[in-house]
Design a protein that fits this description.
It is a single chain. With 369 residues, the chain is α+β, with helices and mostly antiparallel strands. Among the domains are: 96 residues, Arc Repressor Mutant, subunit A (Orthogonal Bundle); 87 residues, no CATH class. The chain contains 17 helices and 13 strands. Strands 9-10-11-12-13 form a five-stranded mixed β-sheet, covered by helices on one side. Strands 1-7-8 form a three-stranded mixed β-sheet. Strands 2-4-3 form a three-stranded antiparallel β-sheet. Helix 5 packs across helix 11, helix 11 crosses helix 13 and helix 12 crosses helix 13. The radius of gyration is 22 Å and the shape is globular.
């Protein structure tokens, strides 16, 4: 059982603590892979947004540094949370893939029937894919051409020709491959086990507690439902597993009262939480930034209900004191802010953040709206 304390903190304190853990206030000095590792994952649906999510958390950054980290192998791109492509740190990204693979979707009757691959066929199929990628990155079409030379997989030729979007996902979950450098505007895949920085996919019961601790270290104080959102709903880890991992970490966690809501925190972070002062920082974040995706858009302490629609539609976010209070958009050097909050717009802090964003983008931004 998690040890319960009599500690009570305000929601503003909790958000200030989380802003610091997110490298948003104060902005951090971690390398690119360190930022990705801190966040757990960075969505890759929009590479410009992914790079901004990383760079806005670094005191000093340069264009193209996320792509450089991918090329160096300190960061990898794989299918991960909610079936979407994410950047993970090579150092510990395998813990999330272990949880993603826990659902063993490739063993579902619908999968077996559609792909005509029984569960016992997967070890050999995975080995064939790795062998096909030994010479270097391949597009899905090229990968299919090599793999289907084997009579055992010839029936998969139409699947690969159609893009094999679902079939290839478990191959990244199990650590066989990751996205390689794009070629001619097309995605490629490459072997993951040849990356010397990749630590592999650990055993599920080793990965689970590590993933819980990593989440609470960055997103705490958080409720068990927050953890379920991230690791259960996001990765198919399963509610019972998450509850068991939380229970097994009892001696490392404390429960604190955040404005009336019992929330979990790493015991080692309690002192920092108690010392946190409400933040007045304004941050201009990309749409679907981990600040909102990690706790989930239903977390009303971060995303007020009347703003959830714009957040889920991937609007760029104006965050003040840790709360989504507006949106922003840019056209050339003009940056328009739409303020959605009843509180006065903090013009001084906003002007400062616009200047910081301009420095990141290499533009002399003019604030509109």
């Amino acid at each position: 059982m998690v040890v319960t304390t009599q500690v009570r903190v305000t929601r503003e304190q909790a958000l200030a603590h989380r802003l610091a853990r997110h490298l948003l206030d104060p902005v951090g000095g971690e390398p690119v892979a360190g930022v990705v590792r801190r966040l757990g994952a960075v969505p890759s649906m929009d590479e410009a947004g992914a790079e901004l999510a990383v760079r806005t958390r670094r005191r000093s950054s340069r264009p193209g540094e996320l792509a450089a980290a991918l090329e160096a192998g300190t960061v990898v791109r794989v299918f991960a949370f909610r079936g979407a492509v994410h950047h993970l740190a090579a150092e510990d990204g395998g813990i999330y893939l272990a949880l993603r693979a826990a659902g063993r979707q490739w063993e579902l009757p619908s999968w077996v029937e559609h792909y005509r691959l029984a569960p016992e066929d997967w070890p050999d199929f995975r080995a064939a894919v790795r062998e096909a990628l030994t010479a270097g990155p391949l597009t899905v079409t090229e990968l299919g051409e090599v793999v289907t030379r084997d009579p055992a997989y010839r029936h998969l030729a139409p699947v690969f020709a159609a893009g094999a979007g679902t079939l290839v996902k478990p191959l990244t979950w199990q650590g066989d491959m990751c996205f390689g450098p794009p070629r001619g505007g097309r995605a490629t895949f490459q072997r993951l086990d040849t990356n010397p920085r990749w630590r592999g996919v650990p055993d599920l019961e080793d990965a689970g507690p590590r993933a819980v601790l990593a989440y609470l270290r960055t997103y705490g104080p958080a409720t068990p439902e927050h953890v379920h959102h991230w690791l259960g709903d996001g990765l198919s880890a399963g509610r019972r597993r998450v509850e068991r991992w939380l229970a097994g970490l009892a001696d490392r966690l404390v429960t604190v009262d955040v404005a009336g809501t019992p929330s979990r925190l790493l015991r080692e972070d309690l002192e920092a939480l108690l010392a946190a002062e409400p933040s007045e920082a304004v941050r201009l974040l990309p749409g679907h930034d981990q600040w909102v995706m990690g706790p989930g858009t239903r977390d009303t302490s971060v995303v007020p209900p009347d703003r959830r629609k714009v957040v889920t539609r991937k609007a760029n976010l104006v965050v003040a004191g840790g709360v989504v209070r507006g949106t922003w958009s840019r056209r050339g050097d003009d940056l328009e802010v739409t303020w959605l909050d009843a509180a006065p717009l903090p013009t001084g802090a906003l002007d400062e953040e616009v200047g910081r964003l301009g420095a990141i983008l290499g533009r002399d931004l003019r604030l509109r709206g």
